[in-house]
Amino acid sequence: MSLQNFLSALDALQSEAIATLDAASDPEAFEAARVKYVGQKKGALKDIQKQMGGVAADDRKSAGMRLNEVKQAIEKAVAEAQSRLSGGGDSGVDPTFDPTLPGVRPTIGHIHPITQTITHLTEIMGRMGFEAAEGPEVEDPHHNFVALNIPEDHPARDPLDNFYLATAATGTEKQNIEGTRLLRSQTSTVQIRVMANRKPPVRVISLGRVYRPDDPDATHFPMFHQMEGLLVDTHVTMANLKTVLRVFATNYLGGDVEIRFRPSFFPFTEPSVEVDFLWDGNWIEFGGAGMVDPNVFRAVGYDPEEVSGFAFGLGVERLCMRRHGIKDIRDLYSGDMRFLSQF
Ligand code: PHE
């Protein structure tokens, strides 16, 4: 084949291929054109490349150069048609955008380990029929103390042990006046709020923040979380309490967790106990519990001759830290994502 003929065949192929590709109006037409012109096996470009063997040896260099130009022009038309039909082009999407490149991972948030723990505990207790209840974090002395049978001279009400809010009166003697508010020091407040609003039987948990002016160290933080549990019915016993706590601990911590009750005192339970779980061979205190004190029932209008119940309060951070092997409570509230995103 003469160089002249080869070059005009190339020109014809170039105009035809580009016109066809530019005119392709749907993916099928495009694909047919792509196969026809640049297909690896029977494409027109491959065909004409083979014919180059027929061009005189001296002319082959110029033939080859022109072939490359035509090839690039057609490949460019293929790329343009492809991006036009895949939503690039007219739709305003950057045609240089390459959807096959690995993406840039967006920084998304992470659910805080304590929030995860709360969800988990709510789920375990829910399976035992405990419904989640809530109460405010800013409380009045009635719910935080009075209805819980905590008398006025009780050390738990000391301003040094509570975050009283700066109302007109924050002095020791004035704690009870109308309008006094404090950050709740325990979730037992929710027991009162729930019982005051419904009739027995009651089976609730409440998970939330509580506040105490403790100096932060590995096991203390001025804000932490408790899980309160309350069950009121007829003929409730301490054996029921122990069973519920044991089933709970076994589900949350894994294995068959043994439970130990140690005699204790809380104004709102009688008898009262400290609750220990056996963990890695050690008895560890997770909270307090007991049978609801008759005075608490009276304060909410229940008849202690008719109903009985148990209540417990467990430290959520303590549970979370045991389960995940976290050594220092302050890490939970450091805001350090390198720490938090591990959980
Ligand atoms: N509210 C108690 C505390 O914060 C725990 C507790 C709850 C004890 C319910 C008995 C019953 O220490």
Automatic annotation (TrEMBL):
Mg(2+) binds at E270. GO terms for biological process: phenylalanyl-tRNA aminoacylation. It is found in: Cytoplasm. It catalyses: tRNA(Phe) + L-phenylalanine + ATP = L-phenylalanyl-tRNA(Phe) + AMP + diphosphate + H(+). The keyword ATP-binding applies. This is Phenylalanine--tRNA ligase alpha subunit. Its cofactor is Mg(2+). Its main location: cytoplasm. Keywords: Aminoacyl-tRNA synthetase, ATP-binding, Cytoplasm, Ligase, Magnesium, Metal-binding, Nucleotide-binding, Protein biosynthesis. Pfam families: Phe_tRNA-synt_N, tRNA-synt_2d. GO terms for molecular function: ATP binding; magnesium ion binding; phenylalanine-tRNA ligase activity; tRNA binding. Its EC number is 6.1.1.20. InterPro entries: aa-tRNA-synth_II (IPR006195), aa-tRNA-synth_II/BPL/LPL (IPR045864), Phe-tRNA-synth_IIc_asu (IPR004529), Phe-tRNA_ligase_II_N (IPR004188), Phe_tRNA_ligase_alpha1_bac (IPR022911), Phenylalanyl-tRNA_Synthase (IPR002319), tRNA-bd_arm (IPR010978). The keyword Transmembrane helix does not apply. It comes from Stieleria maiorica.
